[in-house]
Specification:
The structure is a homotetramer.
Chain A: E1 8-11, H1 19-36, E2 39-42, H2 49-55, E3 60-63, H3 80-85, E4 90-93, H4 102-114, E5 118-123, H5 126-133, E6 139-142, H6 156-169, E7 174-177, H7 184-192, E8 197-200, H8 202-205, H9 210-230
Parallel strand pairs in A: 1-2, 1-8, 2-3, 3-4, 4-5, 5-6, 6-7
């Protein structure tokens, strides 16, 4: 976990982007990651993992999902060993669009640990975050669907509450605060509110110029982080 | 469909093999495919599609599965455009370990058609095969679980029955007869029984030398095919 | 199938209604079914099957779903024998909110046949309807989601097309035309367009007086049917 | 929770038993429950809930599962309000044969709380048990699949470890120790090892005389409980 120092940022292409376009964004982000000294997690389509890892240097390529199965049967599944072989250094688990059962989530986190890759697990509520923290993933994404659209998401109060809840269970878990981040201003605000990490999907994927938007967001992470921590 | 002429053979690595070992087998099969003039479909882990297509020439690389979604949301899914971008020329659908609903199967076959890639759909029974034939995939895998272990699988009678059933619905669909093919002898028998295609997973994956076993199976396809069709 | 003569009507309470309120609607519908001589299929929550069958006489109580499992393991599943024991005389399968794999759908239709209960299977498109017809259920619900909201749904042309498609595969299958039926007028129009059956969920569930709305719909079925068939 | 005092016992018929036979067993168990002063949870098929609750007095009838949906859409689902209307006073959640996602499990526990019914949640491992304890269900079934067949299951050491783990998170949660209980002797041993509750499925369902076997198990609960607690 040494390498994933704060602040960091997650870009989730879902099924919006692939191939050449994905590689272009990854390359631009790789450069911006160095420029602003912000660690970036990128979760491309599984078929693009090898392409991205072979052509970038500093971004952290994670799989969007994996199945906690051993080498063997399981047609149609994502084998943990196969994605690490392709260069993935982490895996996202339990996203709202790809939810997992309690037992499978626990097994997948253990598989990630066994392969020495990061696990980043999405939590749909404060209660879910506490339960997931008991399973000791490396990172929890606090993206409570109940708060989306309420305007409270990036508030100091909410960042404080989730941070306390997760830290109360396991202080080693890194916390990413993500909910409806649309532009660099949202990024700035959530980091200023105390977050050590945030991320975006549609804010970047639907931007007129995704490379430019991503770079602006990373710049905002850096600026907000420095302003927040300089005086401390 | 011109390229996929009979006889052909499918190798399904499932989650048994990946990375370097997968590429070695793919390369050996690529060569044997040319030597015996037998078309070969290979379905590697999605993360290996690009690796295999970039390093082989004649084998047909198919995805193990894809989700019939449009470009956009869908974290954790396999986007059809992403696998074709990686070089896949086809997709397996509805395998017993990755079953699909009727509506999703129909949509996935239509997505494959729209992207001009092959669809190979598994049918768990004669009745399923007839229903699936109505959805007009390119290839149907007739692998009735009810017959596995009964010894009837590769018999002439069964090959004839399934062929008639599927052809009765749609004569353009290619048919792959697969059930418990363990070695070259099984391959020989099923092609001699009248099949135009067969395939194997564990017979190759669990062999002491998978490359050698695969080459022997392809040789058996060629021999059986020539003996069957020479005199006609 | 003798008893399920045309015209007939399906009421789908989904999870909108249960217990006392469900029984009141069932009783009202039971009476209206006799008054207008229209067969009615009602699909209550599984926990209400026994309550409804014990307190009505002529309506046909179907389960909303069942799992094609044998007596034995399967916690949380709906055992076919358990719902027939409770009085169900049929089962709905493959509704858009409860979709089934090809193999499970085929097995469930076979289980229904083995227990001598009706199977009514939902088809999401014309193509799905043709494929499902190969599995020979008793009734197919032609409710193509692609046409919902297009205004073509209850048109003569569409009713004719689906009827021909299904009959072309298996002329014994009964066909229920359902898509966005909101009131008695919609019911009248779809039967006048040539349908032998239709149905409604939200049109009745969200009505100010569900019992009254259901009775009006059944009256509309009778009137449209008589006008359509009297002159023939 | 006052009524569910220790010791208690759970009988899980899964899909083994239904209708008349289920009612006979329920009646016998109802009587044995009073005779031995042991609380009994019974989880019949959903279609039998109303039948059992109407004809028994002291057993606690739970649903095998429910979906955390509101009244409304959701064909094929088990509506919480519908099972409580039928008389269920609790619900089993997350059984190995009916696993739930983290978010759905949290919502279902909350729905049970809102309807003032018990939630009994299955945990597949010690780690799962700790995570689930954070969601504060009323009862946790500690049935670690990793220990099944190892002979440690009903040992004092294991009972102590799971009890400590769950109590460490939330001391209000009741704990049921279940794993391969086959007869009255197994029941006796696990209660003597310190458990406050246990249960059985196949031990009763596959017994030559299920009513007799269930009664013997309840007698063993009482005897073991009294011997364990008399001297304290």
């Amino acid at each position: 976990m040494k390498y994933l120092k704060a602040p960091f940022f997650e870009i989730g292409p879902k099924a919006y982007m692939y191939g050449k376009e994905m590689l272009e964004l990854a390359s631009a982000v790789d450069e911006a990651s160095r420029k602003y000294d912000v660690r970036v997690i990128l979760t491309p389509q599984v078929s693009d993992i090898r392409l991205i890892t072979a052509n970038t240097r500093d971004i952290l390529v994670f799989a969007q999902h994996m199945d906690p199965i051993p080498v063997g049967r399981g047609l149609g599944s994502v084998l943990p060993e196969a994605i690490t072989d392709a260069g993935a250094v982490g895996v996202m688990l339990n996203h709202a669009e790809c939810q997992m059962t309690v037992a499978n989530l626990r097994k997948a986190i253990a598989r990630a640990r066994g392969l020495d890759i990061y696990s980043i697990v999405c939590a749909d509520s404060l209660e879910d975050a506490r339960a997931i923290a008991m399973l000791a993933p490396d990172i929890i994404v606090a993206e409570p669907s109940e708060l989306i659209g309420t305007g409270q998401t990036s508030g100091e109060e909410y960042v404080r509450a989730t941070t306390e809840a997760i830290r109360g269970v396991n202080p080693e878990i890194r916390i990413l605060q993500a909910a409806g981040i649309k532009d660099a201003n949202d990024v700035y605000n959530v980091i200023r509110a105390g977050a050590e990490a945030t991320g975006s999907t549609s804010g970047i994927m639907k931007a007129a110029d995704p490379c430019k938007m991503a770079a602006e967001m990373l710049a905002a992470v850096r600026q907000a982080w420095d302003e927040t921590h300089a005086t401390k």
